């Protein structure tokens, strides 16, 4: 089924929630609203739409493709020019960072030494600590305030139009779908290209809906209205989910495995579960957790850093030389050892998508990911499961119909 407008993408569960469509709509007719059980989703302000298709042309939920001539392609992980493991040299960034603070350290290096205007990134919303907002960070203090992973809906691409008007090039930090959307947006809007300095992606297994965070608060016994701040991890590696209320006694803490493993991961929406790009293949640089190594108590944090493009490679090398990053080159096999569930998801994808397509369920158009070759690496049992399990879910969860939760508010 051809999708002509993002509300169709949303209703067929294919929206990744990045917000690029809201930036792209020439009529300014799209706004992002949080559907609590799903995520940030695009809605039309008025039905008066020309069906120009610009919203779908920038949408990473509807289609993603690698250029045919992409170099250094590693099966399942996309372009990998060089891989390192290490951390931010600045101890505050390393401590506050989600893994080893590498994403922030690279952005910090760029802010200090490259001709950039700012860093477009995500941070907690000051008026609602469990929500997120896109910001243009221009100082070290701004960057530090945006450090750490936010496991709740965030749509930094809602503000991509800023890149048309900023007084100079910017660094963009986001999830894989966000950085893929940035690349698609720049293809459509030539005006942003001079202001796109570099993109940094964090690894992502899927964005849990707000319902996930509400369940954490419920477990902690804290009301959303009582919250002064909320963080998901960081302040050590991997760090804990910590809620601080307006009053001192309103305090809750859950370990990373309790918060992500037991709660948040169960609230990852459908589109994220069929995402081929969990490691930021369309960014210049991507950063993830080296989960392959056991974490020592009080470990201040470590990151995997992948240079995807020549520009990314140069920037990381300059950030190391300037003393912002302490990194050692690593064997690319540690990506798979660190991200076993992401690898397994990628290998299942061809079976899942093909079953859906044959059942008449709209699916994203993926090109250049080598999904069939990855699927062939599964055991016969796993291959069968990827097809039969999907077929069962299509019937049980009625994926052959649009999602009632995603209908108009
Ligand atoms: C939803 C989600 C799923 C994740 N899944 C995985 C996974 O499967 N495997 C894995 O290794 N790591 C995962 N992470 C964690 C993250 O990829 C790593 O911690 C990564 O190494 C970044 O760490 P860092 O210390 O370099 O980042 P930091 O220096 O702490 O910087 C983090 C940067 O990410 C931005 N950011 C934070 N949250 C969001 C968001 N929701 N949307 C857009 N931008 C954001 C911040 O603005 C900041 O610039 C996930 C994170 C999120 C938010």
Q: CATH topology of the domain at 77-208 and 267-340, anyone?
A: Aspartate Aminotransferase, domain 2
In CATH's first tier, which class of the domain at 77-208 and 267-340 applies?
Alpha Beta
Q: Could you say which overall geometry the principal axes of the C-alpha atoms support?
A: globular
**pLDDT averaged residue by residue:** 96
Structural class: alpha/beta
| Oligomeric form | single chain
What CATH architecture of the domain at 77-208 and 267-340 would you give? 3-Layer(aba) Sandwich
Physical arrangement of strands within the biggest beta sheet? 8-7-9-10-14-15-6-16
What proportion strand? Answer: 15-25%
List the defining traits of the structure above.
17 strands; binds flavin-adenine dinucleotide; Aspartate Aminotransferase, domain 2; 15 helices; 8-stranded mixed beta sheet; alpha/beta; 3-stranded antiparallel beta sheet; 409 residues; globular
């Amino acid at each position: 089924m051809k999708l002509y407008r993002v509300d169709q993408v949303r209703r067929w569960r294919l929206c990744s929630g990045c917000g690029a469509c809201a930036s792209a709509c020439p009529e300014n007719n799209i706004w992002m609203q949080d559907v609590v059980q799903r995520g940030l989703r695009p809605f039309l302000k008025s039905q008066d739409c020309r069906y120009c298709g610009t919203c779908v042309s920038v949408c990473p939920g509807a289609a993603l493709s690698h250029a045919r001539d992409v170099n250094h392609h590693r099966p399942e992980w996309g372009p990998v020019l060089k891989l390192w493991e290490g951390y931010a040299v600045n101890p505050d960034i390393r401590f506050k960072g989600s893994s080893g603070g590498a994403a922030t350290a690279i952005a910090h290096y760029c802010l200090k030494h490259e001709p950039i205007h700012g860093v477009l990134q995500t941070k907690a919303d000051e008026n609602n600590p469990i929500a997120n907002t896109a910001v243009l960070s221009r100082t070290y203090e701004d960057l530090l305030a945006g450090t750490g992973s936010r496991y709740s809906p965030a749509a930094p691409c809602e503000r991509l139009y800023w890149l048309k008007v900023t007084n100079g090039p910017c660094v963009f930090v986001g999830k894989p779908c966000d950085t893929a959307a940035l690349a698609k947006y720049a293809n459509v809007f030539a005006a942003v290209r001079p202001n796109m300095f570099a993109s940094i992606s964090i690894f992502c297994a899927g964005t849990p809906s707000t319902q996930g965070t509400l369940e954490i608060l419920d477990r902690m016994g804290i009301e959303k209205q009582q919250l002064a701040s909320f963080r998901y991890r960081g302040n050590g590696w991997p760090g804990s989910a910590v809620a601080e209320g307006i009053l001192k006694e309103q305090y809750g803490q859950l370990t990373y495995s309790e918060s992500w493993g037991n709660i948040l991961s169960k609230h990852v929406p459908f589109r994220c579960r069929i995402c081929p790009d969990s490691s930021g293949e369309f960014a210049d640089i991507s950063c993830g957790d080296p989960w392959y190594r056991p974490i020592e108590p009080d470990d201040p944090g470590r990151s995997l850093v992948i240079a995807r493009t020549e520009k990314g490679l140069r920037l990381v090398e300059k950030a190391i030389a300037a003393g912002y990053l302490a990194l050692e080159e690593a064997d690319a096999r540690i990506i798979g050892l660190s991200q076993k569930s992401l690898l397994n998801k990628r290998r299942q994808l061809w079976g899942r998508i093909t079953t859906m397509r044959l059942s008449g369920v709209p699916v994203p158009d993926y090109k250049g990911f080598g999904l069939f070759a990855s699927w062939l690496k599964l055991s016969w049992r796993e291959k069968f499961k990827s097809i039969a399990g999907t077929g069962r879910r299509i019937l049980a969860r009625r994926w052959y119909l649009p999602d009632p939760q995603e209908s108009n508010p």
